[in-house]
Design a protein that fits this description.
The chain is mainly α and about 525 residues long. About 70% of the residues lie in helices and about 5% in strands.
Amino acid sequence: MSTVIAGLPIVLLIWAMTRRNALPSHIALPMTALLVALIQLFLFQADRVLVLANVLSGFLSVLTPISIVAGAILLNRVLHFSGAEAVLSRWLKSISTNKVAQLMIIGWAFAFMLEGASGFGTPAAIAAPILVGLGFPAIPVAIFALVMNSVPVSFGAVGTPIWFGLSGLSLSDSQMIDIAKQTALLNSLAALVIPFIALRFLLPWQEIRQNTGFILLSVLSCTLPYVFFAQWNYEFPALIGGAVGLALNVWLAKKRIGLSVPAEAELLEKAMKTSSVVKVFVPFALLIVILIVTRVPQWGIKDVLNTMLPLWRWQLGAAEFEISQALVLSLNNILGTGVSWQYKSLYVPALIPFLLVVLVCIPLFDMSRTLVLTALRDTGQRLLLPMVSLMGALAMVNLMMLGGSQAPMLLLAQAFAGLLGDSWGYAAAILGALGSFFSGSATVSNLTFGGIQLGIAEKVGLPITLVLALQSAGAAMGNMVCINNIIAVSTILGVKNKEGFIIKRTIIPMLAYALVAALFSIVSLLSLN
């Protein structure tokens, strides 16, 4: 009975956001959070103060995603109002007027590289507006960007979901490498299917079929180095795969390999100046370089930006507010419960690199004060309702995780395991996706469910590394239906009240991904017997 009650809010949320007259997320998510709070208080007998502390922590946690979204929108608006976006669109058309090539270069290879460097939803935030600038419609672009931003996610932000998300499981380095190998292979097999489904949201099947050769080469140009690098490293597969793939994608498109391209592409290419193209790519190059420099642990800057050495402390009743030397904001012991909140001002990709790159763009593109203010105003106008939605989502996540072994989220996971037994491999990826759906993060999904997946694997006699690879790949595919990501990309594109519509579309490729994961599990287990 407890499990049914635990799942009720999720069922109601999905129904409310996907029915014919769907509720917008800024209404549906706070209502769901309220329902979970009532269930915790009256059915699970949770402590009222602890429930309130978790709600407050969820509300404060909105600062992380909303600041990233704000930075991405501001950069996009600056590029738009400065005219850089138009130059970028012309450059892409000069490489190829073929829509498939444009979508694969930006929505696949470029986003693949950004995910490897940054994560945090950055790929969709940067790639989607570029595609809209090329003339593609906003809502299908949002769906396309979400679906495409799945394969590289397991190794996003220099491998954070694996090396940090699974860090609490006491795995050996050889086990981590084995998980990376299997995850990369599984994701790459899914990549042979997912881009075709994603492209269908924007293009007719006939156009996709005519360019199948380019699509497959585009996919393999990223996934082959991705799989190759994962044989001995679990930090850089997506970054290396994306960088190699982007260069190869541009070359393939220029040579028209596998493409059905109209002849006017040659005329457009001659009209572009190299200096103007280089200038437009300066912000993106800065973005990627700064992300890499600040996220590679061996270079030391990451530790500096995350240091918790205290700078100031204030006592706020039972709680303690602290600012570290790296400007990490912390509120500890909220309402005297031990619940805490943290915001890494310099590490979250908002001030660095988004705001920093924006400040470089203003003189680079010779923007007037009026244009800068217009960009700022436009950014601010897009943030209010998404902030309400995210506050509801994050409060709901905190409440779903409240209760230790009896937490609603963990009850759902245990119900899945009890239902399937030694057939768990067929559905392990779904649990990883569920974690991303709730939390908005593959890393958090791995942190939350990695231990459960390990316990299930040991209990039913499945290979640990295989089950954790399915968890990791599942967390990546869950990016497609993740509420936080949907709200973020919709906000950046100016799309309102379409979250339920988008979920109904993205769940189809997610289920196709899950089918690939189930088949991968079957083949892997057969090969071991």
